[in-house]
Amino acid sequence: MNNKVSSEFSNIVFISTWKGIKKIKTEDVIYMKSSDKYSEIYLNNDDKIESSSTLSDLAKSFSQDFFYRVNRTTVINLLYAEEFLSSKCCVLLLNNSEIVVSRRRKQDFLKQWISFYSN
Length: 119
Fold this sequence. Notes:
Organism: Ancylomarina euxinus
Distance between the termini: 12 Å
CATH class: Mainly Beta
Strand content: 35-45%
Number of domains: 1
Helix content: 10-25%
CATH superfamily: LytTr DNA-binding domain
Order of helices and strands: HEEEEEHEEEEEH
Pfam families: LytTR
Protein name: LytTR family transcriptional regulator
GO molecular function, one term: phosphorelay response regulator activity
Largest sheet: 5 strands, antiparallel
Shape: globular
Number of strands: 10
Domain HTH LytTR-type: 19-115
Number of helices: 3
Structural class: alpha+beta
Radius of gyration: 14 Å
């Protein structure tokens, strides 16, 4: 991992859940998804955390260098983006989840994803 990644991903984020507050490492988050009045956080160990926070509030806790909002309901960790599937306009994540990228965010997403690994 480059210095940018190793220094950024020593971060810990505290997430409000229905039970209380949970501590997670930012590098463990694959993606976050809004669901009604709560959010779901999908981790690299196949765990899912339900947060009482909105997706917008959650996204503010995470670095914009590593996390990108691909559509109205989903924020992904760019480290886990493996492939962009043009025919479906979606990104394939390391855990084999296919996340739709909105048409209006497609070009910006591709630019940020490519520049993320170019720096």
